[in-house]
Amino acid sequence: MTVRYVVAVGLLTVAYAVGGAGTGAQDADAWRARFGAGEQARQAGDTERYATEMAAAAEAMPAGLLNRPFVQYHAARAAALVGRPDQAVAWLRTAWEEDIESLMISFAPYDSAFESIAGSEAFAGVMGLAADMTLAVRPLAGRVWLIQGAGSNVVAHIGDDGVLLVDTGYLPALPSLRAALGALAEPTVTSLVITHPHEDHMGATPELGREATVYAHPGTTAAMREPYVFMEGVEMPPKPTRAIPDVEVARDTTIVFNGEPIRLLPTVAHTPGDLSVYFTESRVAHLGDTYLAANPMMYPDPEDPDGFLDRLEAFIDSMDPTTIVVGGHEEPADLDAVRAQIAETRACMALVRDAIDDGLSIEAATERGAGRFPPQWVGFFYRRFTLPGP
Asked: CB 3.0–4.6 Å: which of 133, 163, 166, 338 could bond 176 by disulfide?
């Protein structure tokens, strides 16, 4: 088993996969076409074309897109492979400075593509940028605080029992995370909930697990025991024993921390280990990457997509109407925003199922949904419903 990084690249992966099926999705945006060509070149071992196409994709991609740092990372590694160290470092620095998901560049030390420049002062300088990070901290409600900038949205629940964190961000951001916590309270974390097994959400677990009781879904436990694959050829080792969850949450579970009941609900879909958290008195929900506001719809459970949406909808319907919703990466939202994404997901799934029942091809299904749903999402669900497995 391997765990593939999809948090920031999920929609890009969907778009590329569908475009490869000939639906025309790649033609909708120039960057998708160049990215697809770059991926093909990489797989074929054509490093020069890989570098050319990924640089073009990164330059053509609109500013602000959630997937942008992933494309920039590709441009950096491709430049390193063809012996252009200045360009490689420049792309890494650009990914950092645009601050969409700056710490994605922390995979570079595990990437053999950068071996030729790993000892350079310029590369070391970019890799050391995390040491000077300042994370944004603000209160949400009750005892709950939001900490942003570590790679994912981290939530802290602070009280007499200490600090409970939901997610950790990347490991290089841990000193900054501790500093942020130290400004609020004693920075020792006594409990830690991991929403899913992606490095931007669990990266600091090996260190925080020394002091905290770790809660996670069994799927996260299994993933931690395996190498973490960021992309083909870029692999991190399994997590050490101290990171492995102490408490596995396989069903709707309530724990009490700082006197507040906190509900933990498996919402497996985005990964094999998704877990959502609801602070019942503070009225704050952290849904991890189950809810990504930048996506028009959700990645439902491949085995039971309708059941997943039913469970998630029942979960949010049980919450106080004033609940603040924290997703994995964007600004907090409200329950209506989550309901709208669920409804959009159901509508797209229904269109695709009708198209399949009518015997339409993936191209024809995409055409039927034109103007209503993004073509890459129609293709994504078409594949989910016609091919075996996730």
From this structure: 133
Burial class (CB in 10 A: 0-12, 13-18, 19+), 138: exposed
Q: Give tens-digit pLDDT for 319-351.
A: 999 999 999 999 999 999 999 999 999 999 999
Q: In this structure, are strands 162-166 and 189-193 parallel, antiparallel, or unpaired?
A: parallel
147 and 58 in a common domain: no
Helix 47-60 × helix 68-81 angle, to 10°: 150
Q: Is the pTM of this model over 0.90?
A: no
Could you tell me if residue 164 is inside a domain?
A: yes
181 and 189 Cβ atoms separated by less than 8 Å: yes
Contact of 165 with 156, CB cutoff 8 Å: yes
**Directed axis angle between helix 47-60 and helix 30-44, to 10°?**
160
C-beta atoms surrounding 235 within 10 Å:
17
Count of structural domains within the chain: 2
Share of the chain above pLDDT 70, in %: 92
